[in-house]
Amino acid sequence: MAITPYEQYLNLPSLMALQSPATPPSEPTTRASERHFIVVHQVAELLLSQLLLDLNAIRDVIDKEPGNGWDGGESGDQAAVRAAQRAEGLTAMLVHNLALLDHLPPDHFDAFRPRLGEASAGQSPQFARLFAIVHDAVSQLQPKSKPLPPQAARSVREIHHLLGQWQTKHLEIVKRMIGDAPGTGGTSGIGFLRDRIRHHAERAAALQKVGGRRPRSAMPRTAINTLQQLSLRRPSYPSGRRATSGSAKDPPLATARAMSSRDDLSADVGRMGSRTVLVTGGSSGIGTAVARAMAAQGDQVWITYHRAPDRAHALIGELPTHDLVRHRAFPLDQGCWTRVNELVDRLPGPVDVLINNAAVGSKTVEAQGGGSQPREDELFMRINALGPLWLTKLLLPGMLERGYGKIVMVSSVGGGITAFPTFREADEMSKAAVAFMTRQLAAQLTHSPVDVYCVCPGATDTPMFHASTLNNLSPSARHRLINHLPAGRLIDPSEIAHMIRWLASPQGEVLHGAVIDASLGLGAHPGLLTGPATA
Predict the structure, then answer these.
(1) pLDDT digits 0-9 by tens, 13-24
(2) Does the pTM exceed 0.85?
(3) Between vectors from CA 198 to CA 196 and to CA 203, what angle results, nearest 5°?
(4) What is the structure's pLDDT at 533?
(5) Alpha carbon distance, N-terminus to C-terminus of the chain
(6) 3-state SS, one letter per residue, for 347-415
(7) What is the tens place of the pLDDT at every residue in 232-244?
(8) Percentage of the chain surpassing pLDDT 90?
(9) 3-state secondary structure of 518
(10) Domains defined along the chain, listed by start
(11) What letter would DSSP give residue 488?
């Protein structure tokens, strides 16, 4: 049958003939797995070839001036941005492509591994060239006459972060496949890969010591400061808080501190592919959901707890992990300045993302207040408002010094967004204080590399909401209350957690200073609690 113009244009017959598993057809299952393995690596090489072309194109176009013959009359800056953004997308595809090997069973790999001989991904000249650009600041990416446009610089920084993710993912896959066995290319296997990641992180640590304060778009610390690593001058931003488009990847931990000579816990902090996220009140409810969401994307998670150490440590044991992070749980009495200060002194490394989630509800303060109304009011203010303020003020200077930080306050629709007549005044005052603190900090940090947000959940399916509200109702009254809520349901903690995870990502930067109503609409229509129920 004649080939179609599409097949001819893409040379598909030749392309499809390139997959030649060494496993014989008599072993169809293993042969299919080997073909999958081959396809993943061939796709990676195709992506790499285009990625390198685009990175070289940045050099080629940056010194061009408008009208010098670029397609469509593009200026050099426009073409550089286009090439950099395309390269960023290709690098993201490279990471996702590697993740396809998660579907390769280790026993299948063991079956065809001997047929690889000495073949190893480490022998790829394109990978070698790409990481040479990352680690050795190859001069051809350096524009001699003017700096890289801010949008292009951001994309290149994102490429560095994604390559860090690729390294970490590669280590995870290799460990799952071969354990501590030597690599097929004659390397030590896992040890070799760890050394490469350590080298990458040490380079990043050294680069952090160069230069003064970085702009808001500073490169993730473990993914290498691109503007310096590529010998590019920092972009000159227009007047205002930051450039109008693009964003840097969330930086991981402070590698300079983590890569110190001490072989203790601090040496586990600051590895490639993760930030350190501190979640207060992480042993229950929204805090637990946030801890799971952040750990699932590779972040190192530290949580605080007050009265549930067993539950907190059980959660830490359940969080997904890899060799480059160590999740931890710390006790904290958030309403006590001394205890907050002691916590910060105990932390084994810098905090990149702070989630001020811990708070108390009416049942907790009633139990602790001993029947004293003034004492209960004080507990609301100290734990819900002053605690987050103290912790933020202690951690913020380090974020500013290191050139990166994300702070997410968790308030409530009651107080943070609107007022409910039946709520306790001190409770709503404490939540309103958190929302105002967010706005105040955001105003102070407008030109800094630290973002601040506030999320105000509505009725959420947490132990606190059950204790303060639902447990006091009969089954029929509980049913009526839930039916009065927006959408006739409670919010799942994971819904709030995914929002917080997004705010702590590069895309969340545009919402700096936002106090977000996350109540399914209850904040916009508080009368729903006393209005007609849903059908």
Answers:
(1) 999 999 989 999
(2) no
(3) 95
(4) 54
(5) 61
(6) CCCCCCEEEECCCCCHHHHHHHHCCCHHHHHHHHHHHHHHHHHHHHHHHHHHHHHHCCEEEEEECCHHH
(7) 222 232 333 333 3
(8) 36
(9) strand
(10) 30-229 (1.20.58.480), 268-462+487-529 (3.40.50.720)
(11) G
